[in-house]
Specification:
The complex is a heterodimer of chains A (about 110) and B (about 140). Chain A is an all-beta fold. Chain A has strands at about 5-10, 15, 20-25, 50-55, 60-65, 75-80, 85-95, 100-109. Chain A has a five-stranded mixed beta sheet, with no helix packed on it. In chain A, a hairpin with a 2-residue loop joins strand 4 and strand 5 (about 60-65). The radius of gyration of chain A is 16 Å and the shape is elongated. With about 140 residues, chain B is of the alpha+beta class. Helix content of chain B is about 25%, strand content about 40%. Chain B has two helices and eight strands; from the N terminus they run ααββββββββ. A five-stranded mixed beta sheet of chain B has the order 2-8-7-4-5, with helices on one face. In chain B, strands 1-3-6 form a three-stranded antiparallel beta sheet, with no helix packed on it. In chain B, a hairpin with a 4-residue loop joins strand 7 (about 110-120) and strand 8. Chain B is elongated, with a radius of gyration of 19 Å. The N and C termini of chain B lie far apart (about 40 Å). The relative contact order of chain B is 0.23. The chains are: A mainly beta (about 110), B alpha+beta (about 140). The interface of A and B includes residues 55, 66, 67, 81 and 82 of A. Strand 5 (about 60-65) of chain A pairs antiparallel with strand 5 of chain B. Chain A: It holds the Pfam family SoxZ. Chain A: This is Thiosulfate oxidation carrier complex protein SoxZ. Chain A: InterPro entries: Ig-like_fold, Ig_E-set, SoxZ, SoxZ_dom.
């Protein structure tokens, strides 16, 4: 497991029914591309997050496939349409098999 | 060795060819990836917006945004990177609008390409050149 992986997600706490909201996510991760070399000229092996998904009440919002060309600390901004109160489930899948998860509640006014 | 004017010209030409070689190689890899994504269909234009800075000082983190109303999925490619693939966005039923932004690495000045698959099965493409001052691939 990569060290100090911390997901951060920004979601509004409340929303009017049917409204479209903007979600911002960021996770601290080195995203080692597999292109860099260490001081002795050895290639540093690739170690990235290769998939990110966001679901709301079991329904998919966005599913992103990441390649090594995504910057360190992968950041995503996207939008979702919300018609009911519920829970966002954010999931990041690491190359090494680790899965990082974060949940956010949202209430419809 | 006696260098005639013709020899000099030929050598210069040879140098230019060698210098130009890597670009078509990268471009071919990008074309392959696009063909794989579209299943060989030639993507059209319009209906997709790719927003990227004209000049990126740091190739390690270049903010980009794609907007393709009605898209099912969008693939981002960087033609001048060692591997052209950058990211694939698949939009689910709850996606509010088909907009996504992220930050990417660029090895050098190059074209960033976005291809979107529309709900009706057609494909559209947009590209923008980004000038990179410091490449983002590390040593």
């Amino acid at each position: 497991m990569a060290e100090n992986v911390r997901p951060r997600v920004r979601v509004p706490a409340t929303v009017a029914a049917g409204e479209t909201i903007t979600i911002k996510t960021l996770i601290s991760h080195n995203m080692e591309s597999g292109q860099r070399k260490d001081g002795d000229g050895n290639v540093i092996p690739r170690s990235i997050i290769n998939r990110f998904t966001c679901d709301f009440n079991g329904q998919n919002v966005i599913d992103v496939t990441l390649e090594p060309a995504i910057s360190r600390n992968p950041f995503f901004e996207f939008q979702a349409t919300i018609s009911e109160s519920g829970t966002f489930q954010f999931t990041w899948y690491d190359d090494d098999g680790s899965v990082y998860e974060e949940q956010k509640e949202i209430a419809v006014e | 060795m006696n260098l005639t004017r013709r020899d000099t010209l030929l050598m210069a030409l040879g140098g230019a060819v060698v210098a130009a070689l890597p670009m078509p190689v990268f471009a071919a890899a990008t074309e392959d990836q696009i063909a794989e994504f579209t299943g060989g269909v030639e993507p059209g234009t319009g209906g997709i917006t790719l927003t990227a800075p004209e000049i990126a000082e740091n190739g390690n983190t270049v903010p980009i945004e794609v907007d393709a109303p009605g898209a099912v999925s969008i693939i981002i490619l960087a033609a001048g990177n060692p591997n052209p693939g950058v990211a694939t966005f698949n939009f689910g039923p709850l996606a509010g609008s088909h907009v996504a932004s992220t930050r990417i690495r660029l090895a050098g000045t190059q074209d960033v390409v976005a291809v979107a698959k529309m709900a009706d099965g057609s494909f559209v493409q947009a590209s923008q050149e980004v000038k990179v001052t410091i490449g983002g691939c590390g040593g």
